[in-house]
Amino acid sequence: MIKKIILTMLIAVCIATTACNTMRGVGKDIESAGEAIQKATDKK
């Protein structure tokens, strides 16, 4: 029973860590797109 709980917790931590990295990447992509739009509008 304890092994199942520990295994479940480890899997949850792995999924949470992966999700954080994915969301961080999405945030960077959105930020860079926003900066590109700002640069494009500043040039006009």
User: Oligomeric status of the shown chains?
Assistant: single chain
The coarse overall form would be rod-shaped
Number of distinct beta strands: 0
What structural class do you assign from the helix and strand content?
Answer: mainly alpha
Low-confidence stretches: none
Q: Could you estimate the helical fraction of the residues in percent? A: over 70%
Beta-strand content bin: under 5%
Radius of gyration: 19 Å
How many individual helices?
A: 1
Mean pLDDT across every amino acid position? 81
Order of helices and strands: H
Brief summary of the model shown:
It is built from one helix and no strands.
Write a structural description.
This protein has 44 residues and is an all-alpha fold. Helices cover 95% and strands 0% of the residues. It is built from one helix and no strands. It has one helix at 2-43. The termini are far apart.
Helix/strand layout:
Blueprint: H1 2-43
Labels describing this entry:
44 residues; rod-shaped; 1 helix; single chain; mainly alpha
